[in-house]
């Protein structure tokens, strides 16, 4: 709800905010002493995920050459499935730690990808589109030349500039998106994630161990079942990439 406005004003800084939220939330969860701390940590994690999910695909689309844009966004999805697989793998092994503190390592360990992502953001540059949104025309052109590795970027830069000017003319974007012109895109943007949610896949992704345990599986069997599910999810993502 808030990340898009912050992205428009601050550009890639939104990703850094997401990393910090994620890292802080992971630390709070790792050292949690009560349910309230777990809830606060989880809320911060969700803010981090929300900021990253909003800004990273947009950044990839804006920074990549046209022919590679879709491929990079598919790699973003692949990275998510790899993360789910690694998380379930860690859950399986940390559950075997004697003393019952393995869950702290499992939850707190999420700080590692958060910090890696945060440090990586220092090596990223603002996209030309983002700079144009903030009226930094000369800097945007220089940045585009650096990204493309050539001096002659007039045609692409002019396309970016026209698109930016057209976007600024929209007075009420929420009302504009409801017009007939954008209705097909709006319907697809709603129905695609809706049907993905209705499959119940998120229940398996987030609560697989609890789900399998409620079906009568033991602790180890529940975690193994969750691991198998994430492996299938990863393999299915590879099939989807290959089909492109």
UniProtKB/TrEMBL annotation:
Transmembrane segments: 42-60, 72-93, 105-124, 186-209, 221-242
SUPFAM superfamilies registered for this protein in UniProt: MFS general substrate transporter
Molecular-function GO terms, alphabetical: carbohydrate transmembrane transporter activity; symporter activity
Species this protein is from: Gossypium australe
Family assignment from sequence similarity: Belongs to the major facilitator superfamily. Sugar transporter (TC 2.A.1.1) family.
InterPro entries: MFS_dom, MFS_sugar_transport-like, MFS_trans_sf, STP/PLT_plant, Sugar/inositol_transpt
Major facilitator superfamily (MFS) profile domain sequence ranges: 1-244
Compartmental location: Membrane
Superkingdom in the source lineage: Eukaryota
GO terms under cellular component: membrane
Name of the protein described by the UniProt record: Sugar transport 1-like protein
Membrane topology per record: Multi-pass membrane protein
Entry-linked Gene3D superfamilies: MFS general substrate transporter like domains
